[in-house]
Design goal:
Layout lengths: L3 H4 L23 H21 L5 H10 L5 E10 L2 H13 L5 E5 L2 E9 L2 H10 L4 E6 L11 H24 L5 H24 L4 H22 L4 H18 L2
Antiparallel strand pairs: 1-3, 1-4, 2-3
Length: 253
């Protein structure tokens, strides 16, 4: 559960009316699709037959291509609260000092994130400088994404790429090696990628699985859109970037 509305200005969960059921045009499947599926099945059988007499290297290689991204993100938790009001107050203070201030609600506890890291070692270094903080590991559970005609792989790749890009941009801006204008250009590129993916999903919607995938894409799109339209000052921008980076990382769980 995230608390984007508390922080991101102009944040919209969806551009559809509440309760409105998305209208999908189910694509037609022709004979070409059936022949292609049959061809793929034959190729798979041949590969696994050959691999049975090897060390399994072919299968391992294919698995690496299909799921190249795995592992974890590391979210540094600054404080935990039983009260939502206390969590919001803590998050506000963290944001004022350039931190993410992202609130995670799990097991009836409100956890306030300071920042997100791609490597555990980096999180550990910052942890030593902030007494009382805890590292929360977020495992990427992309297997839970609905399998929708290749859109899942596209979403996974974009989410990974965007999280890493936002992390890099936030650090570059913090070290003053990237201007605010350049930051917004980078965020605009990410926003456009999610917009295109969201549009394609809405156009090719097939089932409830599609709608569940749209909800993930929509959350990410709305967050970066809010960064661009929120009118943040240069001092607020670092915190906003860390906030959205944490949001993206949490979407991968």
């Amino acid at each position: 559960m995230d608390y984007s509305p508390y922080y991101l200005k102009n944040y919209l969960k969806s551009d559809r009316t509440v309760g409105e059921k998305p209208k999908y045009n189910k694509p037609k499947r022709g004979r070409g699709a059936i022949k292609f599926i049959a061809f793929v099945l034959v190729v798979c059988l041949v590969i696994f037959a050959v691999d049975a007499f090897t060390d399994g290297s072919i299968y391992k290689t294919i698995a690496g291509i299909v799921n190249p991204k795995s592992g974890k993100y590391y979210i540094l938790i600054a404080s935990e609260h039983q009260s939502e009001t206390e969590a919001v107050a803590s998050a506000t203070l963290i944001r004022a000092n350039g931190g993410a201030g992202y609130i995670i609600y799990e097991n009836e506890v409100y956890s306030v994130a300071l920042a997100t890291y791609l490597e555990e070692e980096d999180a550990a270094v910052v942890q030593t400088k902030n007494q009382g903080t805890v590292i929360k590991e977020v495992e990427k559970k992309y297997s839970l994404f609905p399998d929708v005609s290749g859109f899942s792989d596209r979403c996974i790749a974009l989410l990974d790429e965007s999280t890493e890009k936002l992390y890099s941009v936030a650090n570059a801006y913090s070290s003053k090696s990237l201007s605010a204008g350049s930051v917004l250009n980078e965020v605009t590129a990410i926003r456009n990628e999610f917009f295109n993916l969201k549009s394609d999903l809405l156009d090719a919607g097939q089932s409830g699985d599609t709608d569940r995938l749209i909800s993930v894409v929509d959350q990410c799109f709305s967050a970066v859109e809010a960064v661009l339209t929120g009118g943040y000052s240069s001092t607020e921008l670092e915190s906003v970037l860390r906030y959205v980076t944490t949001l993206f990382a949490y979407c991968a769980r």
